[in-house]
Amino acid sequence: MAASVTPVISVADAGIRFKRNRRSRRNFKDLFAGKKRRTRPGEFWALRKVSFDVMPGEAIGVVGRNGQGKSTLLKLVAEVVFPDEGTVKVHAGVAPLIEITGGFVNDLTVRDNVYLTAGLHGMKKTEIDERFDEIIDFAEIGDFLDTPYKHLSSGMKVRIAFSVVTRLEEPVILVDEVLAVGDKAFREKCYRRIEELLSGGRTLFFVSHSEKDLKRFCTRGLYLDKGRLVLDGPISEVLDRYNADYGTTA
Amino acid sequence: MSEAILGRPRGSAFSRYRHSLWLLTTRDLKVRYSTSFLGYFWSILDPLLMAAIYWFVFQVVFGRGVGHEPYIVFLLSALLPWTWFNGSISDATRAFTREAKLIRSTRIPRTIWVGRIVLSKGIEFLASIPVIIVFVLVTLGTPDPAHLQWSALLLPLAVVLQAVLTFGIGLIVAPLVVFFRDLERAVKLVLRFGFYASPVVYGIGDLPGWLQPWAALNPLSGVFSLYRSAFFPQELRWFDVGVSAAMSVVLLAIGLLVFRRTIPTVLKEI
């Protein structure tokens, strides 16, 4: 399919800034100021001048120390925050495994929550009906279908959330270290599920500190340091560079 | 790796907007009704209790100096819409803070976070209309029965006007509260003031003459006059309705503008 090789994600000169502390002064004028204003004191750029394209089917690992903008980049790609400069374009549906339990309502039952979360990601009721059993089977919580979400254990909560989001059948999957939770067996199951999705031609965007996981899923790496994209290359090269910079081997 | 996966087929932007809006609205209603025994009755209990208080104060204590007979119908015909307005705006102050986690993880159009409040409260309002009908039937046995007028057909217009107005104000209030938390309390205060500044316990006609044109500047005056005309044709004031409609549209435009300009910052802050 040579003709269809247009990037599924294109990020061009993207930058986003945050306030350093919550109490810094803010007035009405700031709110309505245009995008092009300079950095004000008390603000810092979490990401700046980041550019890259992602082709369909690529598996990308994002590497960097804490606080270097990895999660922010993921949120930009998920389009849950907007860049202050540059552009982020995502040309396909995204299944974000970011704050996955966030959409679940404590007072509603598991069943209602599944329909709600999948529905918010654009699934129609009939589509959810078709996948419902599969979702519940994967999460292994068949007995708790009509239990209010708040009564589930934290492990179950993550399991059902993961199960719903990975059944969305979106072409792009974003994973932000959610898999650190849950028991070993379920984690392995999640990993197998991600591999399954990858071999089905999905595009993966993966943030992790685990070299093993990065090597397992990803072919290409993005190395973020101090808000800049330092290196964009094969995952092994990116990991070598990261280890060289910060002297870790684990 | 085979060909590119295109994902599930998607409807138009409008149908997706409607789908998400409806989903969140029904969720709101479901949560409200699954967590309480009285469910539906809570949404009419509040206006009913208030109506009882005002009826007692103005009818029994002061003797009726305002409104028309039957006063309870006069009162409820503006009190129920006021409950919708009041509930929507005070919930709009928490539109982003209460749902922060969910908003951080989905990318549906953000106006839905305000729209779902207006819609779910609106549905509760429509569901509370039978209360008025019950009181109308009760007054049939009294010397001053309420009569349904042809202008009751204006009800859809009133509902649309109020929805536009409430949505517009909600779009202004919701993002600003994220930046200025004090606004949440300020809004509550303004709402309490607004209750007496709007023709709920009285009619515009009860105001001194010089005040009446000014009262029209309150966009709720026109809206409530439409509702009231269902039983009290003398309450219908087309001038106020016109002012109301114009202000609602302007407020909606301002709301959309404010919302668009502030939403990138809101998403960073929550």
* Spatial arrangement of strands, main beta sheet of chain A: 5-6-7-3-8-9
Question: Major sheet of chain B: size, sense and barrel closure?
Answer: none
Largest interface: A-B, 47 and 35 residues
Q: How is the quaternary structure best described?
A: heterodimer
User: How many domains in all of chain A?
Assistant: 2
Main sheet makeup of chain A = 6 strands, mixed
Under CATH, the topology of the largest domain in chain A is which? Rossmann fold
Tell me the structural class of chain B. mainly alpha
Shape field of chain B: globular
How many β-strand stretches of chain A?
9
Q: Provide the CATH architecture of the largest domain in chain A.
A: 3-Layer(aba) Sandwich
What does this protein look like?
The complex is a heterodimer of chains A (250) and B (270). With 250 residues, chain A is α/β, with parallel strands linked by helices. Chain A folds into two domains: 2-93 and 207-246, 3-Layer(aba) Sandwich (Rossmann fold), CATH 3.40.50; 101-170. Chain A contains eight helices and nine strands. Chain A has helices spanning 28-32, 70-77, 110-120, 125-139, 154-166, 184-199, 211-217, 235-246; strands at 9-19, 43-54, 59-63, 85-90, 94-97, 172-176, 203-207, 220-225, 228-234. Chain A has a six-stranded mixed sheet, with helices on both faces. In chain A, strands 2-1-4 form a three-stranded antiparallel sheet. In chain A, a hairpin with a 2-residue loop joins strand 8 (220-225) and strand 9. In chain A, helix 3 (110-120) packs parallel to helix 5. Chain A is globular. In chain A, 43% of the residues are buried. The mean pLDDT of chain A is 84. Chain B is an all-alpha fold and 270 residues long. Chain B has one domain (33-269). Helices cover 69% and strands 0% of the residues of chain B. Chain B is built from ten helices and no strands. Chain B has helices spanning 13-34, 40-61, 71-92, 100-105, 112-139, 155-179, 182-197, 212-215, 219-228, 238-269. In chain B, helix 2 (40-61) packs across helix 3 (71-92), helix 3 packs parallel to helix 6 and helix 3 crosses helix 9. The radius of gyration of chain B is 21 Å and the shape is globular. The chains are: A alpha/beta (250), B mainly alpha (270). Chain A binds chain B through residues 1, 4, 8, 16, 18, 26, 31-32, 56-57, 75, 78-82, 84, 92-94, 96, 98-103, 105, 107-108, 112, 116, 119-124, 127, 168-171, 199-202, and chain B through 1-8, 10, 16, 19-20, 23-24, 27, 30-31, 34-35, 101-108, 179, 261-265, 267-268.
